[in-house]
Amino acid sequence: MTTTSERVAGSRTRQASHHVSQSVFDGSRLRVVLLVDVHDGAQQEFLEAYEQLCNQVASVPGHVSDQLCQSIENPSQWLITSEWESAPPFLAWVNSEEHVRMVEPLHSCVRDTRSLRFHVVRETGGPAAEAGQEERRLQTAPRIGDGLIRHALTFTVKPGSEEIVAKILADYASPEPQVDDTTRLCRTSLFMHGNRVVRAIEVRGDLLAALRHVARQPEVRAVEEAINPHLEQDRDLNDPESARVFFTRAALPAVHHVTAEGQHPQAERYALYYPARPDLGMQLAELLARQDEAAADDPHSPVLRSTIFQRDDVVVRLIDVRDGIEAADPVRILGLSDSAQVAELTTLLDDAGTPASASGDAGMARLLELARMDLVTDRRSPDA
Question: Is the pTM of this model over 0.85?
Answer without folding.
Answer: yes
